[in-house]
């Protein structure tokens, strides 16, 4: 089990804290696996200076899905125009 620390903005931190957000979308630039601990540290986004608020949430990773734009059904132009969305459900 690895411990992965990442910064998160207050609006997303609050959504996870309240239980309304049960996913995290991140650039695939680090190794994450099921069973790893994701430590999210809340940082403010005041102007260009980010400050650590001191609040932390720890979540065990239960599923990891990786994909590249070239592997998706949509074209890169469609993705650039419309973006992507992730739907979570229970």
How many beta-strand runs?
A: 3
Structural shape? globular
Order of helices and strands: EHEEH
How much β-strand is present in the residues?
Answer: 15-25%
Structural class label: alpha+beta
Unreliable residue stretches: none
Q: Mind summarizing the main beta sheet?
A: 3 strands, mixed
Helix content: 10-25%
Q: What's the rounded overall pLDDT mean?
A: 90
Please tell me about this protein's structure.
- The structure is a single chain.
- By secondary structure, the protein is an alpha+beta fold.
- 18% of the residues lie in helices and 24% in strands.
- It has 2 helices and 3 strands.
- It has a 3-stranded mixed sheet.
- The radius of gyration is 15 Å and the shape is globular.
- 4% of the residues are buried.
Would you spell out the secondary-structure blueprint of this structure?
Elements lengths: L2 E6 L1 H9 L18 E7 L8 E9 L15 H7 L8
Parallel strand pairs: 1-2
Antiparallel strand pairs: 2-3
Outline:
With 90 residues, the chain is α+β, with helices and mostly antiparallel strands.
List keywords for this structure.
24% strand; 3-stranded mixed β-sheet; 2 helices; 90 residues; alpha+beta
């Amino acid at each position: 089990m690895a411990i992965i620390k990442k910064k998160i903005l207050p609006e997303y931190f609050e959504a996870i804290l309240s239980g309304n957000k049960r996913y995290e979308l991140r650039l695939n630039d680090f190794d994450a696996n099921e069973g790893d601990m994701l430590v999210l540290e809340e940082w403010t986004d005041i102007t260009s200076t980010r400050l650590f608020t001191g609040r932390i949430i720890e979540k065990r990773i239960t599923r990891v899905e990786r994909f590249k734009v070239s592997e998706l059904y949509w074209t890169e132009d469609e993705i650039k125009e419309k973006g992507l969305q992730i739907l979570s459900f229970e």
